[in-house]
């Protein structure tokens, strides 16, 4: 028994899983991966059409063809690569730099920087602005300006004359405007997405997850536990006497009591535990990698802690897999155990009895 308690305490003091949070920017970048290949294949299609209509250049024709197929192969191969994870931004940056190098090589072998195909650089700038932010995009525009000057020099044009610099200047200003505005707009969309996601997933009074977010976050934990055979605990909590606090001390004091309980809950939970306000004075919690005894011990500590704040809660615990096979079943059982605590006078923790 002592050994079991020791193990339970150890469980509640460590963090077996990383904190559960959503990353809207990551989701957006993942979504952009498909758009990236469309931009790359558009670039290859325009280049191929140019070569079909205008024919291969007399000098460097083979080099252009090899570079085009090489670039197409790179894009095809990269589309098969796993794009998730923290290296994703670097992979996207690599794609845009590859695009700039390919376009520069193509222009060098065909019409130089003064023809209409110089606007192909727009594809790289837009790709970067959509995914990599203002700073990286501005750096890429600077790199494109350097490439264009180098092209002028390599193609034998004297670059230090106003007439020769004017077309490069015009195209760079256009790239700057498009790149800056697109990146700024995307940043604004990120901010509003984050705000919307927060509004849709958080409870306004406490900042905790709401019911919808809890359901979304609990499902993968249940599936993981089912696969690994590890236990987890579902906790249902309800404050005792909130109506009395509201009626005697006012709604503000009731709100303060809810916030006070939230503070205690946040202090006692592990970062991998999922805590949500289900509504009113009801809270739910999911404790991964924790058995019923561990959940009960943690909740008993919480019941003792909130006494210091002159608050009282009724708690019900149900654990996977002993007390239920599905999340819905466990939530029901935890709820019933919580009502049992309440019916027994509140201020206590009950575990759903194994049938
Ligand atoms: N201040 C405040 N009160 C709330 C909030 N949400 C719900 N309530 C009130 O909390 C009270 C909950 O009432 P009950 O469900 O009877 O709960 P209780 O008074 O804690 O009684 P028992 O649960 O039986 O112990 C209701 O009067 C609700 O109007 C809130 O966000 N802030």
From TrEMBL:
It is an enzyme of class 2 (transferase). One of its GO terms (molecular function) is diguanylate cyclase activity. It catalyses: 2 GTP = 3',3'-c-di-GMP + 2 diphosphate. GO terms for cellular component: plasma membrane. It comes from the Bacteria. Its EC number is 2.7.7.65. Its cofactor is Mg(2+). Residues 230-354 form the GGDEF domain. This is diguanylate cyclase.
């Amino acid at each position: 028994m002592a050994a079991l308690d020791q193990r339970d305490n150890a469980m509640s003091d460590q963090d077996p899983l990383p904190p559960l949070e959503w990353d809207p920017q990551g989701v957006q970048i993942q979504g952009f991966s498909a758009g990236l290949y469309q931009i790359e294949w558009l670039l290859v299609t325009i280049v191929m059409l140019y070569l079909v209509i205008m024919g291969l250049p007399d000098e460097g024709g083979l080099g252009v063809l090899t570079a085009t197929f090489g670039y197409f192969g790179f894009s095809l191969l990269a589309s098969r690569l796993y794009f998730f994870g923290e290296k994703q931004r670097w992979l996207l940056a690599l794609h845009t730099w590859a695009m700039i190098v390919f376009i520069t090589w193509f222009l060098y072998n065909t019409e130089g920087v003064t023809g209409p195909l110089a606007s192909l650089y727009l594809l790289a700038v837009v790709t970067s602005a959509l995914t990599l932010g203002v700073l990286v995009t501005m750096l890429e525009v600077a790199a494109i300006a350097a490439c264009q000057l180098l092209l002028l020099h390599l193609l034998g044009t004297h670059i230090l004359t106003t007439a020769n610099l004017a077309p490069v200047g015009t195209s760079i200003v256009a790239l700057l405007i498009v790149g800056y505005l697109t990146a700024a707009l995307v940043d604004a969309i990120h901010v509003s997405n984050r705000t919307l996601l927060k509004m849709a997933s958080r409870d306004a009074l406490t900042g905790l997850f709401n019911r919808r977010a809890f359901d979304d976050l609990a499902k993968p934990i249940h599936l993981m536990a089912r696969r690994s055979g590890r236990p987890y605990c579902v906790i249902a909590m309800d404050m005792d006497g909130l109506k009395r606090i509201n009626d005697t001390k006012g709604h503000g004091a009731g709100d303060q009591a809810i916030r006070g309980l939230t503070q205690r809950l946040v202090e006692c939970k592990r970062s991998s535990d999922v805590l949500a306000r289900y509504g009113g004075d009801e809270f739910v919690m999911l404790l991964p990698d924790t058995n019923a005894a561990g959940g009960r011990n943690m909740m008993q500590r919480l019941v003792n802690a909130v006494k210091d704040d002159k608050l009282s809660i009724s708690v019900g615990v149900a654990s996977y897999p002993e007390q239920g096979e599905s999340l819905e079943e466990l939530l029901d059982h935890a709820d019933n155990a919580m009502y049992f605590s309440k019916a027994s006078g509140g201020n206590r923790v009950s575990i759903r009895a194994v049938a």
